[in-house]
Amino acid sequence: MDSLFSFLSYLRIERNSSVHTKNAYERDIRQFLGFLAHSLDKEEKELTDQDLEATPSITLRMWLHSLLEQGLKKTTIARKASSLKSYFAYLQKREYIDRNPTEALLLPKKEKRLPVVISDEEMTQCLDALNDISDDSFEATQERAILECLYSTGIRLSELVGLNVADYNVQQRQIKVLGKGNKERVLPIGGKAEDALEKMMHKRQELGGSLSNEDPLFVTVKGNRIYPRYVQRLVKEYLDRVSEATKKSPHVIRHSFATRMLDRGADIRIIKEFLGHASLSATQIYTHTSVEHLKSIHAKAHPRGGSSKETSIQDSIS
């Protein structure tokens, strides 16, 4: 459909959306178009803008119900519905249609889940153990640098993979990150991360000579840019040794970084800048995580911090 092609071009050019975001929108919208075409006994390629404008409310509700029956999570269904609402709003704004049938479509309430975090003690144990290893091979020094960099800055996996040599400013002790929407931000790095990066780059120069600014900062044994799965395996391997968390990924380290910053009194607006969030609402979930952390500390450390049920159990034991 011309209108769908126009919408996807709008996302790419005017909204500067990533390829991943554009593809997600297209999958969600095409899934609905297939459902609509089936309900009209048509092929998807036969659909017209008039068919979209005349979409009955019952068809929209049936589509959402079909997603629920497929076992999709409410968060996934809400995202798909949001994609569809954005598409129809665009069609109405650009006058492909006069009526927007999704205006009254209610999004499923998202399940409120706190992000999984690795405790400060576990992260410290993991990183200290790495630095105590006597292996001074390039692979080992790079592994230390990757983990220290992730925890020191809270950057995304894609941002880490995309770093070039020029993005690391040795004198200023900072890195330049290209985030979502091609927005750049400059982040300071901690002393431990700086030491790890310096050792890695020194070892790399010993093996391969001088480095150019355009070279990837982190590379495979063949000298190519590292890839996401490489980092995911690395993070899981080392966190498996110290943590029983349900998830162990670079994004969990990002969550852990933000939570530690908040626990230690950092302003949430500063954390927003570190994480590269477009709005403060995306960062505010960490306030809930931090409150849960404080509750846990209070329950363990305060003589009257535990629940009455816990107190009665302790009394019965003694």
SSE layout:
Elements: H1 2-13, H2 19-39, H3 49-53, H4 57-69, H5 74-93, H6 120-132, H7 138-153, H8 157-161, E1 168-169, E2 174-178, E3 184-188, H9 191-208, H10 228-239, H11 250-263, H12 268-275, H13 280-283, H14 285-301, H15 308-317
Antiparallel strand pairs: 1-2, 2-3
Give an overview of the whole structure.
By secondary structure, the chain is mainly α. Helix content is about 60%, strand content about 5%. The chain is built from 15 helices and 3 strands. It has helices spanning about 1-15, 20-40, 50-55, 55-70, 75-95, 120-130, 140-155, 155-160, 190-210, 230-240, 250-265, 270-275, 280-285, 285-300, 310-315; strands at about 170, 175-180, 185-190. It has a 3-stranded antiparallel beta sheet, with no helix packed on it. Strand 2 (about 175-180) and strand 3 form a beta hairpin. Helix 1 (about 1-15) runs antiparallel to helix 2 (about 20-40) and helix 2 (about 20-40) packs across helix 5 (about 75-95). The longest helix is centred in the N-terminal third of the chain and has 21 residues, at about 20-40. It is globular and about 70 Å long. The termini are far apart.
